[in-house]
Structure formats: structure tokens, C-alpha cells
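Narrative progress, year one. The postdoctoral researcher (J.K.) led the effort to move from monomer predictions toward full complexes, under supervision of the PI. The following entry was the first complex the group processed end to end, covering 664 residues in total.
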Amino acid sequence: MRRSIVNDPGDLVPEALEGLVLSHPRLLALQETHRLVTRRERARDKVGLVSGGGSGHEPLHAGFVGRGMLDVAVSGAVFASPTALQVLEGTKAADAGRGVVQIVKNYTGDVLNFRIAGEISGDDAIETEIVLVDDDLATDTGDERGPGRRGTAATVVVEKVCGAAAEEGADLQQVAAVGRRVASAARTMSLALEAGTHPGDSAPQFTLGEDEVELGVGIHGERAARRVPFRDADALTDLLLDPLLAELGLARGDQVLAIVNGLGSAYPLELQLVARRLHHRLADAGIAIDRSLVGSYVTSLDMHGVSLTLVPLDDELRRLWDAPVRTPALTW
Amino acid sequence: MRRSIVNDPGDLVPEALEGLVLSHPRLLALQETHRLVTRRERARDKVGLVSGGGSGHEPLHAGFVGRGMLDVAVSGAVFASPTALQVLEGTKAADAGRGVVQIVKNYTGDVLNFRIAGEISGDDAIETEIVLVDDDLATDTGDERGPGRRGTAATVVVEKVCGAAAEEGADLQQVAAVGRRVASAARTMSLALEAGTHPGDSAPQFTLGEDEVELGVGIHGERAARRVPFRDADALTDLLLDPLLAELGLARGDQVLAIVNGLGSAYPLELQLVARRLHHRLADAGIAIDRSLVGSYVTSLDMHGVSLTLVPLDDELRRLWDAPVRTPALTW
């Protein structure tokens, strides 16, 4: 039996957004009608950045609004895309006269609504470019007519490097290009020991046996193709890492950015064990983890699980990653 | 049934510390023998700050090592005090010639071992001062002969303001004094919907009925005096806030620092709802939330619960809180 700290579940998203913005009065502002979280001070003379999607993945996306990352985040209901109208208003709010990059995780509803909004915003003379994030290796079927890979934790890296490029004064095409470069290079693998539970529900989205692990689970609780036996932290990490290494074809001397991401109720000790194994494995392979994040950044309500993201790094990406950022969830 | 991402549970703490330090190579270093996490670059010519306690409360304490906060964190086993020898070595490692402030949560084992270490470190001509953190209002029995209030999330504030004072060049007595001032003014209340589970165990520390909430739970899963009916987010927040307001005697025009702290598996949407209610209630009372933190900073493994900490603010505390800090878990 699961319970949530929630009022009317139908009010969850607007109430939570209000709580977020009240907690960051110097960074954020709220546009209630369309559930937009914006920077407190609108940026000037830079490419705008808008992202968004269903709620339940916090701190993504509203937690990444601020200097050096997003201008606007658009929130749908839990695990449901925002409407095209919301995205349109978000795109307008992000525009500072130099066009807007829309960062979109690859899910049918999100892609559709961002595309529609992008087209309509042309009526207001706002140029837009979509950067599609599709890093989830577990959904790589190789079928080009299919929905393609899902978008997961690489979104944080795309938002960060696009944000830095925009602050530096890059133009619309340049900001979109660097985001696409990250998206095309990044891959993620996830696993869950326990599904998340929708606020107000008492049962998780699915249940696993005592000896089972969902390998390749999605951030909306999408089931995976494989269910594998439970094992220890090192072996669980290997389950994520082996397919990533095979896919990315990294070689001795390469450098990567790694994200060890908790999916909701994984706690720091668990993430630190995954990070440890990752460091040992890549050190043995002669691959440098040049930058990393370890924490819960792209979640699935209270899912007990972890994802691992690797992004090959070069000098430009490292510089953009290291650039100053000031948001509720990422600051340096 | 609960499971953890863990190898041999007996190796959990050293492995997790290794993972933390590997993930922050520019900030942290590890002294394995005594399970000390230190700054990568030892600070010079300032009062040293050491804290520590049982593990399972991450990011406390090791996540707060870095410029502007701790010099050294000492880790015991899960929910078990570090030994006096560990604390002694941690105190030595924190010393830069101007004495060491030991920040100690009020638990019998911690207090005992830090006291012993403080006395022995005198043999090495290291002056020490203990700042005892005892903010947990649920354990305020008014009995001066008892163990007193437990130490919980106010520890973050004590570590932050002492850290800032030490960086500013304050002397040992001054750093200790400002920490004691925070500790004596801060109060915290906690509740849990579900207990945490020890890594390697399959059952949580205690179970609650569907309609029950543990009000006043401790960060080691200590049971509370009161078990109250489950209710919605606003009403749960009021259960925490009402006794805090009664105890602190805040008046219209006062300013506070507030921490809405997740105890492990509370997820951001839940914390944002608590923050929202808190802001509304204090706005109604004419009390300004001048600074706040909303996140999981002092946890109890994967406990599903939340704590609320209020600290009355004045100009000095606000300045010390705002001073730059660069640690894994707190950076600005």
C-alpha cells in the first residue's frame, strides 16, 4: 500500500508549481494559466530555451529554469504531455527576439504538441527549432518507422549545453546544433526494483517478484522487454553499463560525462555504489569520467530505480557543461 | 518487500564513500582507514570544522564537505556512531592551527565519542569546541536530566553558518558561538508515512496502518509518541507547523529560514506541496520566509516522510547563510 503527500490529486501540478516558485522567489516566476515556470527576470538578446512535458519527473523540467539553462518550462499533468496551446505560450514567453529552441523528449504527445506550437508561433514571427532527445537505448529497435528511442536523462545535458551556448550569444541554429550533437551521442539505460505510484493511488504501476528487476524501464513506468534476476549493486550497474559501452563504441583515451540518476526513491547510498562501480569499470577500460552528476534529476514519481547516461565529451561540450548555471536543481 | 541496490551490506559505507569521492574528484578526498571525507585541498589558517555520525542520512554529512562548510566528515555504520578514534582522526584532519569546531547531532553515542575525541585531541594541542544540535521538537520533554532533543535537519544550517564564519576568519569561540546560536533557535518536526529499510533487509523498520501517520518520527526510525490519522498535504503540513509556531513564538514581521526536508523517498512534488502550504500559512501570519531549502538533505535511508525546520533569521545569520558554498549537496 502506497500513499502520497497530496491534496486533491487533480490540483497536484498547479499546487506543486506554486510551491516551487514560492521557494525560489529570486529565480523563478509562475504563469498560472498555462502552467509555465519562467525566469524571474526575462533574459534579453539571446536565443530562448523552452522545454517541458508531463509532470512526475521533477526536478525536470521546471527545476532547470534559470540563468545558464532554460527560460521556460511547460508542465503537463502527471505523465501527460502539455497541450499545444501551453507550449505555444511557453514558446512566446521564452522568446527574446532571437528565436526559441524547443527541447523535447521523444514521446508522441510531446513531439506532436511542440511541433504544432512551433508552427503556430511562426505566426508571431518567432523562429523555432526543435531538439529531440532520444537517449534511451532500451527502446532502440533499429526500426526507423517506429517511435524511436525515448527521451530520458540526457535531457539534462541537452538543456545545460544549449543553455550555456545561448548565454554565450550563439544563434538559433548554433544552439540547436549543439543540442542535437549531444542528443545524438548520448545513451541511457535504466532499471527498476519497484515501480512508481501515481499520487492518490494506493498501488504501484506494476509489481515485480522478489527476484526480478525491470531492465530498460521507462520514466513513465513503461515496461521493459527484459525482466532479469535481482543481483548486487555491482552486477546491476554492469547490466546498465555493458550495453552502453557496446553501443557507444568508446575507446581507451575517450572522455565521457556520466549521469547516475535516481528514478525517485533510490537513495544516495545506492547511487554512490553505482557511481563507484561505474568509475572502476571505466578506469579499467581506460575511459575517463571527466564530468559527472550523481543524484535524482529525471525521475518517475517514487520509482525505486536508477539510470545511467553516458555522453562522449569534447572540448566544446566540456566548456558548455562547465559554464555557470543557476537553477533550483543545478547550480555552479 | 523491499530491496536495495547494495553489494555486501557490511561493505556499504566504505563503498559508498568511495563512490562519492570518485564522483567529486575536484572537491573531495577519502581517508579510507577512518572513513573520513575531507576537502581535496586542505584549508589553511582557519578554524576547522568536523562533523559526522551514523550513515544513512545522506547527503549529511559528507555531502557538505567543501569550501564554505565542513572540512571533514566522519562516517559510522548505518545509524551507528563513528568511534572516538575515527572522530579523533577526523578532528586532526580538520585542524589548520586555529582549533576545530565539532558539530554533533544530539545522540548519546555521537556525543560521547566526539567528547572523548575532543579531550584526547588536546594532547596534540588541538583546541576543540562542540556545537550540539538538538532541534527535534518532538523529543522536547522538558526534562533536563533526560537525553534532550534529538539533532536533525538544523544540522545543515549549523554547518553552513559555522562554515561561513570560519572562512571569514572568525576564531574558534566565535564560530562555535554562531553555531550554538542557530542550534538553540532552530526547531524541527517530522512525520513519516512509511519507515525506511536497512540495506539488505526486506522489511521496513516499522509498519503503519493505511490510516496512520507517525508524527514526530526520528531519523533513525525512532518511533514517535503520537500516531495520527492520515490526511491531505495541507493538513499534514499543519501537523508539523503548528507545534513549531507555538514553540518558537514568532511574531508578525519576523523572518525565518525554512527547510522542507525529504526523509528519503518523498519526491519533489510532495515537498513542493508542503512548501506551498508553509508559505501560505506564514504569509497569513505575517512571517517572512526569507530563505529556504526544499529537498532531501537529512534523510533516513528510504523513509517516506518529511521534516520541517524553522530558524529565526537576523542579519548576521542571513549573511552567513548567503556566503558562497561549494559542496556536493549545497552550492551557491
